[in-house]
Structures are given as structure tokens and as C-alpha cells.
Design brief:
Blueprint (H helix, E strand, L loop, with lengths): L1 E9 L6 E4 L1 H11 L4 E7 L4 E6 L3 H14 L18 H10 L2 E7 L2 E2 L6 E6 L6 E9 L1
Antiparallel strand pairs: 1-8, 2-7, 3-5, 3-8, 4-7, 5-6
Length: 139
């Protein structure tokens, strides 16, 4: 069995944003040389997410509006977490809804996606550097 571990770094300039990382992950699968296996893509920060969905700007806008309704940033005093001096209680909740990681099968050296599926990094407490782990295992 072979494996490849890489770290991707992001610094989204807004509080919330989505970055399509599909092509980067596909390049890492090629680099790994793995033909049959699994690819884990994992947000390594508690206010960021990795998820799979369609790459469509209207959908991303809808996510932003929906997430802000579920867990509005302001007033920051509404979150007990923010009593610690933080202002990102909402970002923790948004990450919980959007998820921590994805696992995608690798078949014949390629990520196995359904129609329209792509991998995204989701940021909910931006303006600082954060890391995503990519771990590819197989033969």
C-alpha cells in the first residue's frame, strides 16, 4: 500500500467564503500514483469545513444566506463561546453543519465523483491562515 500526505493552506480575505479545491486534490491523486484507493480531505481548523457539492455561484450565495440565518455572526454576545474573548461562536456552528471532511474513492487513478460533484473548502472565520490535510492511500 502507498500513501501521500499533503497540506493545503488557505487565507480567505472575508469572514465567510468557499474555495473550489477539486483540481488541486486531483493533481495530488496523480502525484501519488495511486490507482485504487481513498482520498481524505480534512479541514484542520474548527471554524473551517470541507464538503462536496455543485460549483454554482447561486448555490454558494444560498449557503452564505442560509448559514447566516442559522447562526448569525452578530450580535456576538448571543454566543456563550464568545465570552472567552472570541467572536467566532457562529463559525463553530457553521462548520458543524457543513462538515469536517470528505472521503472520495479513487478508481483507475481518478477521483470517483457523481455528476456535478466538486470538493470545496469552506471558511467561516476568515482573514487568517488555515490548513487542510489531504491523505491518499491505496495501491
Amino acid at each position: 500500500m502507498k500513501s501521500l500526505t499533503e497540506h493545503l493552506w488557505f487565507e480567505v480575505p472575508q469572514r465567510m467564503g468557499f474555495v473550489n479545491i477539486t483540481r488541486t486534490v486531483e493533481e495530488l491523486v496523480r502525484k501519488s500514483g495511486i490507482q485504487e484507493g481513498l482520498c481524505l480531505v480534512n479541514a484542520m481548523h474548527i471554524t473551517a469545513s470541507v464538503f462536496i457539492n455543485d460549483h454554482e455561484s447561486g448555490l454558494h450565495h444560498d449557503y452564505e444566506v442560509w448559514l447566516e440565518k442559522l447562526a448569525p455572526h452578530a450580535p456576538v454576545s448571543q454566543y456563550h463561546h464568545n465570552r472567552t474573548g472570541e467572536d467566532n461562536g457562529d463559525a463553530h456552528l457553521k462548520r458543524q453543519v457543513m462538515g469536517r471532511e470528505v472521503v472520495v474513492a479513487i478508481t483507475k487513478g481518478q477521483l470517483e465523483f457523481g455528476p456535478w460533484e466538486q470538493i470545496f473548502y469552506g471558511e467561516f472565520d476568515g482573514c487568517r491562515r488555515k490548513r487542510v490535510l489531504v491523505k491518499i492511500i491505496g495501491d
